[in-house]
Each structure stands twice: as C-alpha cells, then as structure tokens.
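G., before I forget:
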Amino acid sequence: MKLPVMLALLAATPAMAQDKPVLTVYAGESITSEWGPGPKIEEGFEAFCNCDLRFVTGDELSRVLMEGERTEADIVFGLNTDVTARARASGLFAPHGQDTSGLSLPVEWTDDIFLPYNWGETAFVYDETRLQNPPASFAELLEAPDDLKIVIQDPRSSVSGLALLLWVKSVYGDQAPDAWAKLAPKVLTVTKGWSESYGMFTEGEADMVLSYTTSPAYHIEAEGDATKKAAIFPEGHYLMAEVAAQLRTTDQPELAQAFMDWILTPEFQATIPLANWSLPAKLPQDDWPQVMRDLPRPEKTLFYSETEAEALRQPALDEWLRAFSG
Amino acid sequence: MAAGLFRLTRAEAGGAIAAGGLALLILGTLAAVAWVAQGLSGLGPWDWRAVRFTLWQAALSATLSALLAVPVARALARRRFPGRAALVTLLGAPFILPVIVAIMGLIAVFGRNGAVNDALRLAGLPEVSIYGWQGVILAHVFFNLPLSVRLILQGWQAIPAERFRLAASLGFGPRDVARHLERPMLRAVLPGVWLAVFLVCLTSFTVALALGGGPRATTVELAIYQAFRFDFDLGRAASLGLIQIGLCLAAMALARWIAIPAAFGAGLDADHMPAAPGGWHRISDALVITGAAGVLIWPMAAVIARGLPQIPDLPPEVWQAAGRSVVMALISALLALALSLTLALSLARGRMRWVETAGMLPLIASPLVLGTGLFILLRGWFLPQTLALPVTVAINAVMALPFGLRALIPAARTLHRDYGRLADSLDLHGLARLRYLILPRLARPLGFAGGLAAALAMGDLGVITLFASDRPTLPLQLFQLMNSYRMDDASACAVLLMAISFGLFWIFDRGGRLA
C-alpha cells in the first residue's frame, strides 16, 4: 500500500511565501471559494502590501469566539449584520478607523468597528415565464392564493432566513403573527440554507424563492437570461450587508489597518458586484456594472439596529415557529 | 500486559482498545463542548418537540425500511435473472448519494412538477405532495431501503445451502421454509438492520428540513445547529448531543433484547440459491424487484439526465477536488476496514458487549458537536487548517464504522462459531489465521464495508467547518458551486460525485465478491 505517499500528499501545505509578513484573514466558504471574491481580494492586496494574505476558511465567528485572545486571525471578513452584536460583545475587535459618512448604503452606518463592504436586500425572486402575475406588494403576497408556492430558509440555520423574520417584523410589527399565518400555507418548504432553496426554484419546483434583490444580475450577466426577476415591494426590503473587522490582538497591526483602509477604495469595491453578486458599499452608482445599475431598486430599505435586532430575534423566532406548528 | 491482566485474547484486546478510543472520541468531544460552555444548559419546549419528532420519524422510517426490505431481499435471494448482480450493486447507490443530490432527484420524480405528479395530472387524478412528514419518510426509505436489502440479503446468503436442500428433500413448502429457516434468520438480522436505519435517521437534518415542509419537521440535529449558530449556546448543544446518545443507547438495548442469534451451523460454500417457489410467487417476486428498482433508480436517473450533458464544461478546479477526494476516500476506507475488522473479530468472541455499543456510537454523534469538540481539544497543539484533511479522513473512517460493523459482526460471529475451534486446534493464529481463514471467509462483507466507507467518505460534506481548508473536497465544491448560483455546474458536479462514489463502492464490493 502506498499509504505514506498518500499521507504526504494530504499533508503537503501550500508553498510558504518567504519571509513576507502574513496577514491571516478568517472568511466564510462562499468568500474563499474559487467562484467568490476571495481570489481577487488576495491578488489585489498582495499587489501592494508586500505581504502574504492567507485566507483561513470556515465558520469564522464561532472560531474566533472560541479562540478568544489567542486567535491568529488578524481580520475577520464576511460577517453578516445579524451577528455583529455578539461579535462586539466579545471585545475582541478594534475600530476600523474609516470615514463611513460617504457610503453608498441606503441606511446610515455609524459603526466604528464593523465595516460593510457589500450589501443587498432580501427579496422574493421569480421566473416571469412561470409566474405571469407576481404579487406587487407584500400585502398582495399575503393575500395571494395558496397555490402560489414559495421556498424560504430556516432562520435558525440561515442568515437570509433570519433576515426574512426581521423583514416581516419590520413591515408588520405586532401583526407579524397574522402575516405569518397567511404566508405559511404558501410556503412549500423551508430549507437549511439558501442554496437548497435556490436550487429548488431554478429546477421549477417553486414559484418564488427567498433570495436577494441582486440575484437576477447573475442570470443576466452569466447566463444571458433576463427572465428571473426580484419582486419589488413598496413596503420596503430588509437590508443585508457583510462586514469586516480587525482583531484587537493582531500581531500585524499595520497590515491589518492597511487592509481595512483598502476595503472602501474604488479598486476593491469594483471587484464586489460581479464576484459576490451584491452591491458595493462605497462606489458611485455610475461606476456600478451596467447589469447592477439596470436592476429595479426598492424605494424603501428596512433595517434594525443591532440592539433592536438582537432583542427581536427570539420573540420573532417564537412567532414564526408557532405560525408553522399550529 | 493488558492481555494477561484481564485474561483477554489478542483479538479482544485490540477490539477493546479500538472501542475505547472510539468512545473517548465521541464522549470526549461532547465533554469538551460542555466544558467550554461551563456546563450543560436546560432545553426549551421547542427542543423537546424536536426530540419527539426525531424519535417518531426515525422509528417509522426504520420500521418501513426494514419491513419493505424483506420481500425485496427474499426475491433477490431466490431468483436468478440477467443483470441481477448489477442490480444488487446498484442497490448500494442511494445510500451513498450526497444528501442534496438525493433531494434533487426525489423532487424531480415526486415533486410538484415531478414525473409522478405530471402523470397524475394527465390522468385527472389529485396530486401528491412530497412536502411534509411523508416526504421525510419517503426520503429516508429511499436512502435506507437499499442498505437494509443488502444486509438482509447477506443474512439469506449466510444460511448454508445444505439447509435449503434438506428442506427441499423433506418436502417443505414456502411456509415451512419461512418458519424453519427464514424467520429465525430474520429474527437474528432484522433488529440490527432496524437499529442501523433508526440511528441514521436520528441525526437526519437537511433531508428532514428540506422535505419536511417547515419547522414541524425539526430534528434534534437542527436544534444542535441552532444552538451553535443562532444562539451560540454550547451548553445547550452539549445537552442535545447527550440526548442523542441516550436515544442511541436505548434503541440499542431494545434491538439487542429482540434479536436472537440464529444457529444454522457450517456448510459447504457451493453457490446456492434457496428453493424458488413457482406460480404466483414468481410474479410477486418479479413485481417486488421491479418496483424497488424503479423507485430507487428513477430519482438517480433524473439526476444523471440533468447533469451529464454539463460535465465537459466543468471547471478544472472540480477535477482537482475530485482527485483529492478520491485519495481521501481510499485512506478513509482502509482505516475504517482495519477498525471494523478489529472490532468485529473481538466481538465475535462475544464477551464484551460494550464494544458493540461503542462501535455504533459514531452513528449518532452529532457532526457539529464532534467537530467543535475536536477543535477545542486540538487547537492548543496544532494549527487547525493544517489538520483539515487528515481530520476529515479520520472522521469519515469513524463515521463509516457502524455500517461496516453491521455487515461484519454477523459474519464474524458465524466464522468464530463454525471455524474458531478448528482453527484453534490447528494452532492457526495471528497473520496466518488472518490470511487463510479470516480474509477469505469475510471477503464479501469486507468488500461491502470497504465500499460503503469509501463512498460515504467521498460524499461527505466535511463535518468540520471549523477546520475547513482552502483545498476543498468534491462535495464542498458542489456546495460552493450552488452557493455562487452555478446550478448547471453543480448538477454536473453532482453526477461526477455520484459516479465516483458509486465506482469506489463497486470496486470494493465486486472485489469482495470475487475473492
């Protein structure tokens, strides 16, 4: 048996960059994957930092929280807005030192620790060849016949599922349980993550899928398919942004700061839309790719502050569970 | 020396060490999570609902899979037809499909716009819905019926041909054969089969959620996931993990209480076929085989039809990941074989029941608890990312162990009972015994177990996201493709993954049957 050879193959680590300082960036699977923004970010930063940017893939926040002050992470990249409260409470992160007044986000952003680099809104996406008369508002969706089938994600296992909870809460407030009671019969199923839902939708199993306002851009740009649309509701859409932060305990403070300084530059921001299929956090609309500029935009963007969202999370989840378990 | 102190044979000592290591791994990681959480936390009402649903669906799925498998296994045991060998191998396929691929296949057949509902609509009949508890059960039966059939079929094949010949010469009808040969065999085999399926379904998560139609289909594993990700409550995760292990132990006790070992004695190994009754039995057997084959193969055919045309367009990274995954799967399979053979041989001597319990534990170990616990235990000594691939290989080997054991234990017991004393009297020990007695006699279950282990390792999504590496495995790549909207590439990747998993399974299984 060639076991030693196979083990050696497995253990072989990527060639170490000689003597260059290493910036360790914890990031999620969707960022570091071949088809995410990770490779471009690495290339772009290494072009001027005289360093080696090393992504460590995985469940970045759980890992940092468990490692505590001993973490080797210098940067945590790609946290969702729903976990910033818990990340902040750990006291592990340091201010980003950026001016956030000129962001192209539809909401005011004053956080001095977590710096957004992209954003989008939750939306129900449909295929116009299969759904000729999509609901024109959230109210119409609730009143739609029950044979209109949607797939959503579970708020307990998915960030977009949690965003839907907060979306319904921000539109319907105390009436949220009634809204869920009307929505529940239309929910074909609830999946663990976004990809299962989206797969079911593209295979024609559901009429609408909980996704993002920016999802149609992928189909237009990469597939030349303009039939996928996001239904834009006048009640507003819930914001989802991804953020980065530097660790207080970093052993590369200058590199980490240089990385944070780079995030809002036009060079970095220009890579976001077509690599991440989301909108850039700081880039004039005229500099967006055509496909993003052409997307219909909601008039209203809804967003809870981190403290509000944290307080609403559990009660909103209980309402949701009750609506489906009746 | 352990062997001297406890008066254990070498085989038993090896088994005890392997089993002790397993128990330490499963319980130690759980303890590590509880330790970081500084204790266990209490459970809420939704958690208890999840426990109830989990138990109910697992019991129903296991009962249905085991009962439906009996006629299929009997028909396959007593009929010979062209393509039978291929069909028996193909029956291994659903079990080793990556979950998401299987869900897509089932939806293509039984979904709202699937073939079944299209046909019902054409016929003017009401549609059926796959979403709800019925979908969860259907998916679990789809996954586990083939495994059950294979295990029961092995039971049939383990009845020596001489007994069937004797039955024929005594003029036994099908009913007498059932009473004197088949039912005792089933009584010995079925509880173990039921247990294996029950335990597999106990940790079901993605399937239960995707086809369950909503939070009514919440399982304990989802509650654990929620405790980790949504609440960051490690104490609750550990409590739930403990409940899963408790359920496992209770189920094992029940299965052991019901099972009675059959004793048919040894026979010659002439390739035999149980007497096949004619008449309507012929027709019913044909129907059973066609029905099972159809239900199992159709969804896989749907997946292949969708993805096959896209395979030439797959990006090169996918092929690299495929190569990496194959190497990992092979090492996992060898590890799993070595471990399960050690355990099975020691169990065959029948004095250490706890070894069997330890061998089944990996089935219900929550991947999340296991991964997090390992991370906590290893982080002080190693860089987690350098461990990513070796840990994945080791975990996959451990996870495949219970299935290997299910196939090996009955065969090893029979071997020990029928040939143990003879081998002892010939002073056949150590490597010689392994080479001349054990490996030849256990070739079939070993091939099956190795194939399962390789295929399961191939399809595993990498239970340990905390150790994740920048060199993705093929299943991870499939997930990444889906996550970046590339559903066409993902469907091609799924076909590739299915083909490789099945190929690995086929090579091992076939090798075992030819040996």
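Chain B has 22 helices and no strands. Residues 50 and 220 of chain B are 5 Å apart (CA to CA).

More on Monday.
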